Amino acid sequence: MNNIDAKKASLGYLQETILKASSIDTPIGAMLAVGDDEVLYFLQFLDHAELKRDLEKLQLRKKATIIDGVSAALNSVKKELHDYFSGKFTHFSTPLQPFGTPFQQRVWAELRRVPYGESKSYAAEAAAIGRPSAFRAVANANGANPISIIIPCHRIINTNGKMGGYGGGLSRKKWLLEHEKRFSI
Fold first, then answer.
1. In whole angstroms, what is the distance from residue 141 CA to residue 151 CA?
2. Strand-strand pairing, 40-45 and 31-35
3. Is 91 considered catalytic here?
4. What is the C-alpha to C-alpha distance for residues 104 and 86, in angstroms, rounded to an integer?
5. What is the Cα–Cα distance from 117 to 57, expressed in whole angstroms?
């Protein structure tokens, strides 16, 4: 190791993590999954408006390089998504590690408690985390969700029963809600 490499190593530059990325075809559009052999960090539709920015944030937070490839977590989520879209599957077990603030983490944990085939309002989600007046902050946390479908922000709707927003697009949100209702009977 030369002096420059030694200096970089002492500053942590050479301890960079490698994450694998793979696209997954779904009935509602291709998705990009990013993970390692242990956990999934990211799952979004390829046409997501903030895809590039979100991947750059993941690289910075994880001090990682993202390369094309496969990993145990990516293989797991690919199989689970296939089963989900086939209507054979209602609960994901691929280990997740979404990066976010402590508040976002609380919101995302609560999202995972919303049962398959059901929906909940932003206000009810805010109340469930003990912050009943924070429904707008909850909506923003849902919008920052880095792991689409598995952390089911599509199950959260407005108090008046209307769709609300969805980073993957409202047509996908509607499709996902209808799909889950169809197979939850």
1. 12
2. antiparallel
3. no
4. 30
5. 32
Write down the mean pLDDT value for the chain.
Answer: 91
CB 126 within 8 A of CB 133: yes
Placement of tokens 């049962």 in the chain: 115
For tokens 């109340």, the residue is 127
Alpha carbon distance 166, 28 (integer Å): 14
Query: Is residue 6 scored above 80 in pLDDT?
Result: no
Structure tokens at 164: 């609300």
- Residue pLDDT, tens place only, 49-107: 899 999 999 999 999 999 999 999 999 999 999 999 999 888 899 999 999 999 999 99
Res 13: pLDDT:
52
The single residue of 150, 153, 156, 177 carrying the catalytic annotation is: 153
For residues 9 and 20, give the distance between their C-alpha atoms in angstroms, rounded to a whole number.
23
Could you give all domains of the chain from N- to C-terminal order, each with its CATH number? 3-85 (3.30.160.70), 102-184 (1.10.10.10)
